[in-house]
Amino acid sequence: MLTWLRLGSPHPYPWPRTLGFHSENARETILEHLKENKIYSISEKLDGCNICVSSDGFIASRNFVIATKRYSRNLESFKWQGIPMHDGVALMEKALNLKSLLAKQILKGIDFQVLLYGELMKKGSGSSKDDIYNYEKKNIHPGKIYVFGMGLVLPKNTKLPFIFDHGFEVEGSTFPNVHIIPLNFYLCRLLSRVNIEHVTILATGHLCDLLCDERFNALLLKRQVEGFVLSGTQGEKYIKWKYNPEPNATLSNHLDSLMLECKDTPREDAIAHLQQLCDAANRYITKVEDTYYSSFVQMYMEDNEEDVGYAQEFLKEVKKGVTLGTLGLNLVLEKTADDIYHKMHSSISITNALDPLVQAKLKHCIFAELKKYTRNALDFAKEIQKMS
Among 99, 287, 365, 366, which one is most buried in terms of CB atoms within 10 A? Predict the structure, then answer.
């Protein structure tokens, strides 16, 4: 046990850097993986905060220790980035339970440490307060930690048990004999035995086949997931598979060079799917200002101001909302804002697509813009009433 650990100490066992298909400085490594075309497992990459929970009684973020059993007061009320860490504290005990299970069945008679690496989910997602990746529908909830890998810190010269031979030793670690064990179906069963929630393995197959799978490509092209993580079953580590948020000429050139290398080979189709995903960024609007929402709201209100019936109905609804207070008024405005959003979205989607972050921001921007027009529309409606 590392007795010197304090709050704010550097994370002694940080999650290693993960290769991505978009990693331009790892061209040869990517080519090697494609040529070997080994078996990988695939799971959704969750958009939250990287968290590590140790059986030795500490919790760390990506880079620093944020809580310890030994030095943290009121551990039960501990929060990280505003999120109550009840799940993290409970995971400390579960890590101990997992250690006991491994000590009985696999790692008998040696001292070792278990590390649980997972994603702490925030309200909405890591990049937005809105649930842009539909986590609630997937039964993925804020405040929960979903484990995506296990770490083992073994004594010097101790070999990794054969049952975990798909794991790998962390290169460049400050401490020796630190291993990462990617999820597979056996490890998932072990975690479930001690009630540790984990990400779901969606499929297992040859790397190129997974890259060509239309189910996963469709989700990425529509930006309904942040990405996927592919984990090797024979020590090949991890590969990230994500969409690129904006057009990237350097990335496009990188994929073109991979295609030249893989032309007329079984790998060609896999590279073509990566190119398709890269090119899809050209049709996405990634800045809310580029939707010209302000002008759209103005045109919508001006068009409806000419309708006496609409003005009278709008006045009646606003008055009803005012009697209910701020919440009631906001509900009335949200109804109009929702109508504007859907009209605007349908007109944009003819030629372009809205990035999920833009979709989320756009609703809020339309609502704020509509508030500016509420007083003018209300005054106009009163004038109409006087004239009628």
Answer: 366
Domain assignments of the chain as residue spans, ordered by start:
19-283, 288-387
**Backbone CA torsion sign across 258, 259, 265, 269:** positive
Token digits for 175?
């401490």
- DSSP for 119-142? EEPPSS-SS-SS-TT-TTTTT--T
Is residue 198 within 8 Å of residue 146, measured between CB atoms? yes
Tokens for 38?
Answer: 């080994």
- Alpha carbon separation from 174 to 22, 26, 170, 363 (Å, rounded): 28, 24, 10, 47
Within its chain, how far is the Cα of 364 from the centroid? 21
Largest Cα separation within the chain, whole Å, is 92
Residue 233 structure tokens? 């079953």
Average pLDDT rounded to a whole number, residues 322-340: 65
The CATH architecture one would assign to domain 19-283 is 2-Layer Sandwich (3.30)
**CA angle centred on 307, ends 303 and 311, rounded to 5°:** 100
Residue 114's CB is within 10 A of a number of other CB atoms, namely: 24
Distance separating alpha carbons of residues 378 and 320, to the nearest angstrom: 13
**Cα(173)–Cα(160) distance, integer angstroms:** 16
**Beta strands in 61-160, from DSSP E residues, in sequence order:** 65-68, 79-80, 83-84, 113-120, 145-153
Between 26-30, 173-177, 310-314, the lowest mean confidence (pLDDT) is in 310-314
The pairing of beta strand 79-80 with beta strand 168-169: unpaired
One-letter amino acid of 76 = E
pTM: 0.86
Q: Give the percent of the chain with pLDDT over 70.
A: 86
pLDDT tens, position by position, 30-59: 999 999 999 999 999 999 999 999 999 999
